[in-house]
Amino acid sequence: MATMIISFFSPYVIFSLIWVMMISSQAYSKDDRKTYIIYMGDHPKGMDPTSLPSLHTSMAQKILGSDFKSEAILHSYKKSFNGFVMKLTKEEAKRMAEMEDVVSVFPNKKNGLHTTRSWDFIGFPHQVKRTNEESEIIVGVLDSGIWPESESFSDKGFGLPPNKWKGSCHNFTCNRKIIGAKSYNIEGSYAKDDIRSARDSNGHGSHVSSTIAGNLVDSASLLGYASGSGRARGGAPSARIAIYKVCWSSNGCDDANVLAAFDDAIHDGVDVISISVGADVAFPFSYFEDAINIGSFHAMKKGILTSNSANNLGPDLSSMTNYSPWLLSVAAATINRKFLTKVQLGNGITFEGVSINTFDLKNKMFPLIYGGDAPNTAGGYNSSISRYCYKDSLNKHLVKGKIVLCESILVPTDIQLLSGAVGMIHGAISPKDLPNNYAVPSTFLSLRNFRLVHSYLASMGNNATATIFKSDEVRDSLAPYVASFSSRGPNPITPNILKPDVVAPGVNILAAWSPISPISDVKGDKRLVHYNIISGTSMACPHATAAAAYVKSFHSNWSPAMIKSALMTTATPLSATLNPEAEFAYGAGLINPIKAANPGLVYDINEVDYVKFLCQEGIETKNLGILTKDHSSCKKVGKTESVYDLNLPSISLYTNVSSFTRIFHRTVMNVGSATSTYKVKVMYPSFLDIQVKPDTLSFECIGQKKSFSVIIEGSMNVNTASASLIWDDGTFQVRSPIVVFNQLPVPPFIFI
Ligand SMILES: *[C@@H]1O[C@H](CO)[C@@H](O)[C@H](O)[C@H]1NC(C)=O
Ligand SMILES: *[C@@H]1O[C@H](CO)[C@@H](O)[C@H](O)[C@H]1NC(C)=O
Ligand SMILES: *[C@@H]1O[C@H](CO)[C@@H](O)[C@H](O)[C@H]1NC(C)=O
Ligand SMILES: *[C@@H]1O[C@H](CO)[C@@H](O)[C@H](O)[C@H]1NC(C)=O
């Protein structure tokens, strides 16, 4: 499943996963055909794309025979690549996959959705040097839609849309800021609160869009919080937004919608794509059985970089969901704003927890009850479930007027607790960076403090009381560090490619919101606002997208790989003490947009290089021909190049032998000073030896390329080792992270 990537992780995920597995293990009959995506790569040579639907029809007829009806085909992808969507049984899907010209057939997986002092925090002030080109940059945002009346999206002072723009607005009034707006719901299921247009009923899409390209809005705050700097703003405030609504409250952000949006966005002429969406579970999908990998591959071919959130399934290793090398994968870090919410017990003892609590209980004490002592037995729940305060599991009468003590991270998704309990106190494993808005006063305590509250409750019985205070906004002097929820590498299917690529602010981010969506996401919560503070890799991704747009505004002809390289080689690695997973948590480090606009050297990668990489990855020759413009085969692209030589600005070496030697080849292009001499600096632990040959690179002009080799030798006495390589000419420091590791973690969701 894919969802918007905000930082919710609850027992609900586990419950729904079990449910999905039960459903999918049932035997198939014709009646329970499921929606599949049939992906067919590039347009067939010499064929008019408008005739693709009839090709799709004849393929569907072949598979369904007499069962075929014209409405069987739910959607044809035809603008930027070739494919279609239809309902099939498992057996039919298998036969479809064997047909000529089919690259892959995969079920329509549901994805989920994964805030601005944050810009100042990373050293990117509003008054930074900008070019007029910024207003020519169009950012395609695939999300839950947008709230067009938000001040963040006012088009005051904007000129006409760029000439290259071919997009349009459907059932939506665009302006000169929001120049494109479409919505996709291929399976056609709507919930009551879905708005059937690109208008945002959720808030997530408005939040993401305003972080990328929102206007500077003074006096933005969430009910007075985050008003310290008094402003919300996007990183590229002059850029234009094209919104592609792919996420619905009824069915998440499914692959069929996501792929349709890519098909349009690439054709419409966007410059950068931002997608804060990913699968709900960390199951490793191969590169061509997932809409985001496929869509971003075709975007890359047209010179468009796709920025994608790493997902919120951390802190386990291998918990990312998209890891193709052409994506910019973004992890989430804290900023120096944090929210603390205190609890006071009847005995006067106070504990500090984390949440964003805008409610004021005015110091009044309320009876305290343990969720495990208030099961909704009539509803079939016992204390082993109600201790987690899981949806519907609490007895309304018992919790009414009380503060409930709950054992886990809970996102109340219904009104039950609103109408009953006064507040909630939770115990969290890693509470320091998990602030959320809740529908009732709530706070998250460390497990240790949680247990202390629990023993107070146990000793006082019915006499236990507590109150929850309004949150205090404080400075976090440890920031930045990678948020616990942020998904970690390594890359589960190509361990020799480092993921994530970079980290960006994703905790406590203030940005635009949909004023019809309650800030806690709970129906019945009356707090409706224009700006909200939320957290997630969903919030980190748009920061990286804006940085990419900013770089592109200075270098309109740079390839996606060059922009990604600029962002990576200028990033600042975070503290290894605060981030034990090191590169697997933060990739190259925290983005630095100003430096990225002027990186000195870049590592470029073109389509053919990626194709060589795919050959190495064992993609079938049959498929490769369909994927590429010139319909070449692995044989034709020359000797199968090794994954070690894909020209990324990072090096990842997975090795399971005790002593090893491995050579990596890299090529850099001079984009800094015309004449310059770079010397290499390599940092590595004593059990490794890293040689770079040559160790000096001299350039005589801009655009000149130089190649070098990196030889890594050694024997591992730890599981993971961090190293780095820096090309330094005295002006530019071009840094590549190096990671060597000897264990491949199992993705976290295999536990079922
Ligand atoms: C257009 O959008 C409105 C809400 O903004 C919705 O009620 C209506 O059904 C939509 N029309 C179509 C044709 O989708
Ligand atoms: C509580 O309910 C769960 C799920 O229905 C069940 O597996 C468990 O055995 C029950 N526990 C008790 C103590 O009854
Ligand atoms: C609760 O308070 C009542 C009245 O003050 C007292 O009689 C009772 O013993 C107390 N119960 C506990 C468990 O402390
Ligand atoms: C070591 O890695 C290679 C591929 O890199 C793999 O084929 C082999 O099975 C691995 N051996 C062990 C013991 O994990």
UniProtKB/TrEMBL annotation:
GO CC terms, sorted: extracellular region
User: Record's superkingdom?
Assistant: Eukaryota
The protein's matches in CDD domains, at most eight in alphabetical order, are given as: PA_subtilisin_like (cd02120), Peptidases_S8_3 (cd04852)
Q: Does the keyword Cytoplasm apply?
A: no
Give the annotated active site. Answer: 143 (charge relay system), 204 (charge relay system), 538 (charge relay system)
Q: Which residues form the Subtilisin-like protease fibronectin type-III domain?
A: 645-740
UniProt keyword annotations, A-Z: Hydrolase, Protease, Secreted, Serine protease, Signal
Which InterPro entries has this protein been placed in?
Peptidase_S8/S53_dom, Peptidase_S8/S53_dom_sf, Peptidase_S8_His-AS, Peptidase_S8_Ser-AS, Peptidase_S8_subtilisin-rel, Peptidases_S8_3, S8pro/Inhibitor_I9, S8pro/Inhibitor_I9_sf
Q: Where is the Peptidase S8/S53 domain?
A: 135-589
Q: Which Pfam families match?
A: fn3_6, Inhibitor_I9, Peptidase_S8
Give the molecular function GO annotations.
Answer: serine-type endopeptidase activity
Give the subcellular location: Secreted
Q: Entry's PROSITE patterns?
A: SUBTILASE, SUBTILASE_HIS, SUBTILASE_SER
- Per the record's keyword annotation, is Signal included, yes or no? yes
Pinpoint the Inhibitor I9 domain residues.
35-110
Q: Which protein family is named in the record? A: Belongs to the peptidase S8 family.
Protein name from the UniProt record: Cucumisin
Organism classification: Eukaryota, Viridiplantae, Streptophyta, Embryophyta, Tracheophyta
